[in-house]
Amino acid sequence: MASVRIQVRRGTTGQWTANNPTPYAGEVCYDSTSNKFKIGDGTTAYATLPYFIDADDIATLISGAALSTTDDLSEGTTNKYATNARIANALNSGSKTGITFTHDAETNVINTTVTQVQGTTGAQGTTGAQGIQGTQGLQGPTGTQGTQGTQGTQGVQGTQGVQGILGETGAQGTQGTQGTQGTQGTQGTQGTQGLDGAQGTVGAQGTQGVQGTTGTQGTLGTQGTVGSFGGATFDYTFLTSTTNADPGTGNLRFNASPTTATAMYIDASNDASTDISSFLQTIDDSTSTIKGHLRVSQKLDTSVFKLYTISSLTDNTGWFTVDVAYVSGNGTFSNSDDVLITFARTGDVGAQGTQGTVGAQGVQGTQGVQGVQGLEGFVGSNGAQGTQGSVGTQGIGGTNGTQGTQGTQGQVAADPTTTVLLYGGM
Questions:
Q1: Which residues on adjacent β-strands are paired with residue 319?
Q2: Bridge partners for 313 per DSSP
Q3: pLDDT of 287
Q4: Please, what is the angle between helix 85-94 and helix 55-64, to 10°?
Q5: C-alpha–C-alpha distance, residues 46 and 24, integer Å
Q6: Angle, CA 420 vertex, CA 417 and CA 423 arms, to 5°
Q7: What is the pLDDT of residues 293-324, one digit of tens each?
Q8: Which SS3 state, helix, strand or coil, does residue 341 take?
Q9: How many CB atoms lie within 10 A of CB 277?
Q10: pLDDT score for 284
Q11: From the centroid of its chain, how far is CA 415?
């Protein structure tokens, strides 16, 4: 006999939504996308039918609904889906602080413990006067603990004590009257201004001395022809390094690029090993601010050159530091170029010439006689100051009202511990 395979009606969520059939009563419809199923009733379309929920769905629904108050768990609440440990854990994760759930596997029930129950609040008493502290109200009795399975009765909430009446405030004392202001003394009369004396006459201005005649301008000499850059020339080798040290026999270099350099380092001996120290010392001996000029040019192409002024020289024993300032130039040097360096010393500062005689000053005219100043008038005397009025007396302050007595304190209800039973089954 061949085996028989029974398959329920099935499809994806999209297929069920697109077709939306009306399943037969009791027909199982499986959704392969959500892994859930619906059961038809013969009259309702598929989209309207609810999904069949399992224990996992129930646990999710319970854990997501947080209890707002402890009154949500009234006595005799029945869990009609399931009462296993997973439901108890879901309740704990979704409940309010102060409510705990435990599962009894033997009896298959969930015990719920409410650690705080808020009693009803009594009516608000009228506000009494601020007086002495009322006595403490008696504490309400705690409800008895019920046997396991039944819920114990809840203790009665104590009534709220009536608030004492607030005493009346004492009347405010009357304000004292303000004293009258004394009258201001009269201002003394201003003295009369004395008459101004007559202005003296201004003396006559003296005559101006005669201006001396100006000498004739000498004739200007003719412009001399421009000579070549003179001085002493030596053969050296140019280095592109900028190290502040002895560059070696026959070498020279600068502390930066030739156009921005402020110092030149040159060996005391040239390419021919000739010592030029004595010559360099004569340049440093110049008494001028600019002690001379130097010109560095390529030996085989003198159109490539750099011209500098010299402000000082330092003898470093075997090599010199020459402080320079760039003036002009053309072209660029390469490392190890054969160059010619020419030094031109500036002459010493000449002696100052004698100062010429100052021309005679013209005779100044005589000063006129100043007029006599007039007499100053008399200043009037100040009037006497009036007396100041007396200050009025301060008013007497009112007395404060007496303080009222405080009302008695109402009774406070107890915080009973309640056990609620949830029992399951269909």
A1: 267
A2: 322
A3: 86
A4: 20
A5: 10
A6: 160
A7: 999 999 999 999 999 999 999 999 999 999 99
A8: strand
A9: 13
A10: 87
A11: 53
Do 67 and 99 meet the contact criterion of CB atoms below 8 Å apart? yes
> Is domain 232-345 given the CATH code 2.40.30 in the classification?
yes
* Type of residue at 162: V
Query: What mean pLDDT, rounded, does the chain reach?
Result: 73
Q: 183-186: long-range contacts (C-beta < 8 A, 24 or more apart)?
A: 183/386, 183/389, 184/386, 184/388, 185/384, 185/385, 185/386, 185/387, 185/388, 186/383, 186/386
Do 239 and 226 meet the contact criterion of CB atoms below 8 Å apart? no
> What is the value of pTM for the model shown?
0.33
Specify the residue for token string 């030996």.
299
Q: What pLDDT is attached to residue 45?
A: 95
What b/e sequence results for 252-273 when a residue is b if at least 16 CB atoms lie within 10 Å of its CB, and e otherwise? bbbbeebeebebbbbbbbbbee
Strands 9-11 and 251-254: unpaired
Contact call for residues 133 and 406 (beta carbons, < 8 A):
yes
Q: Which pLDDT tens digit goes with each residue over 179-208?
A: 566 667 667 666 566 566 566 566 677 677
Q: Which two tokens stand for residue 127?
A: 């506000």
Task: Parse the chain into domains and list their residue ranges.
Answer: 9-48, 55-114, 232-345
